[in-house]
Design a protein that fits this description.
Layout (H helix, E strand, L loop, with lengths): L4 H11 L12 H4 L4 H16 L8 H19 L6 H15 L5 H20 L6 H17 L3 H21 L10 E2 L15 E3 L2 E8 L2 E3 L3 E9 L2 E4 L4 E4 L2 E3 L2 E4 L3 H11 L4 E4 L10
Parallel strand pairs: 1-3, 3-5, 4-6, 5-7, 5-8, 6-9
Antiparallel strand pairs: 2-3, 7-10
Helix pairs in contact: 1-3, 3-5, 4-6, 5-6, 5-7, 6-8, 7-8, 8-9
Length: 285
């Protein structure tokens, strides 16, 4: 049986409390039972509507309508209780999987933006997430990013990968004992590293812990390093990361393929990232 855009809209409208008073503002807590079936139903409604986007007209009004409905979906998920983290992660996975098949780039971008917003909510609430969640999300984003011929969709996939990196970094526990070799908040001036037991050889820096810093990664090979509570910048230049951990860090970067790869490295369990990729591993840059 085919389901058109109007059917999709009517179903979601019912979920949004459309049967209430016309002027009443929907109250999510009055209609959402705190359980898995609601998430499953929301997932089905959204997935069916997205997969059948060939029935959706190309007008801006209809595209905006999809955005509004996805926004309502975000609000619905956010009121679920703390036991629903795994279901929210599954919904994010389903949204990204659906976005890969949507032929309308504007709608696909909205779907990815919704998944990104839900990811931000999980991070804000400090919800745990397993490595497989980040791996699957990154794989889907790789497919979306490579196939995207639309600037908004590429931007949305980049923003989602960035959010995954910060989310994963926020979940890594700070070691109870850690030997900080560079603590920028205690250093006067920024022209030189103040280091103890950190090896600096040419363009390679290794075996150190950098804390509370603004650090640009470009132009350096970082080996066996930890960045803690730091603001990390990367602008697409040559870089090597080997066994580098980012704990409770924030990130900033130009929207480049290299930066996209860096964010995937941060969000994954990979031990190496190199740009540009060389045939043989260099001792430095």
């Amino acid at each position: 049986m085919k389901v058109g855009f109007n059917d999709f809209g009517e179903r979601l409208a019912k979920l949004e409390g459309a049967n209430g008073p016309p002027q009443a503002k929907p109250k999510w807590t009055t209609w959402i039972p705190l359980g898995v079936p609601v998430l499953a139903l929301l997932t089905i409604v959204v997935s069916v509507g997205i997969h059948l986007d060939n029935k959706i007209g190309a007008s801006q009004k209809e595209i905006q309508g999809v955005g509004v409905r996805l926004g309502k979906l975000e609000d619905a998920i956010k009121v679920l209780n703390s036991q629903q983290s795994d279901q929210t992660q599954k919904l994010i996975h389903d949204l990204l999987s659906a976005a890969k098949t949507v032929s309308n780039a504007a709608i696909a971008a909205k779907v990815v933006e919704t998944a990104s917003s839900l990811t931000a909510t999980l991070q804000k609430e400090n919800r745990a997430a397993p490595p497989i969640f980040f791996e699957e999300a990154s794989r889907n984003l790789t497919t979306i990013n490579r196939a995207a011929g639309n600037a908004d969709l590429k931007s949305a996939s980049f923003a989602m990968q960035y959010k995954l990196a910060e989310y994963r970094s926020s979940l890594i526990p700070v070691p109870s004992t850690i030997n900080i070799t560079v603590n920028c908040r205690s250093v006067l001036g920024v022209e030189a590293y103040q280091v103890r037991n950190t090896k600096i050889l040419g363009n390679t820096i290794s075996d150190g812990v950098v804390a509370n810093c603004f650090q640009q990664l470009d132009g350096t090979a970082w080996v066996n390093m930890v960045f803690l509570n730091s603001d990390i910048a990367y602008f697409g230049g040559p870089v090597v990361l080997k066994n580098v951990k980012f704990i409770h860090c924030t990130f900033r970067a130009y929207k480049t393929e290299a930066s996209f790869g860096l964010y995937q490295y941060v969000a994954s369990d990979k031990t190496e990232f190199e740009y540009p990729k060389k045939q043989s591993q260099p001792s430095g840059l």
